[in-house]
Amino acid sequence: MQNEVTIRPMEGEDAIEIHAIHTACLRTTLRAHYDEGQISAWTTGRTPAGYLRAQDGGEAFLVAVANGVVVGYVSWEDGELLSLFVRPHAQRTGIGTLLADAAFRAAETAGSPIVVLKAALGAGPFYERFGFEDSGPGSTIKRGVEIPDRRMRRQLPEAGNDGYPSPD
After folding, report:
1. What is the model's pLDDT at position 157?
2. Close Cβ partners of 90 (under 8 Å, ≥ 6 residues apart)
């Protein structure tokens, strides 16, 4: 599937698919790490319009499109990765990596590199591949229900220090 994937900015009509992807991942992929009460609190009240409001408020979104269908998305703001989800049937095909790479490049180009995130339980090993380190447990309260996560952070090389020797 990866050879047919295009990454592009979210467009208004993508919000419906983004909402469907997010909901499907919460209800299936994350079922092994969260109970029904947590998943219900996480999904209740979400609408496609919420993603558009977030975008209007400054959250950046990219989508992955395969064969004309949105199969994943990533979002970030102010140096924090806020979400990265891939349709359950398309997971483990490289789409998440493509989305993460594209988001990291776009954020760095915009002058606000992504250095922190709240990883859903079980997602830590994925983010470790990008240099993030687990900085401990955390949680978010949604509708009065605690949703545990792992706080992760990465150090970026100092400006101009790309690991190559300076030219003489």
Report:
1. 73
2. 1, 66, 71, 72
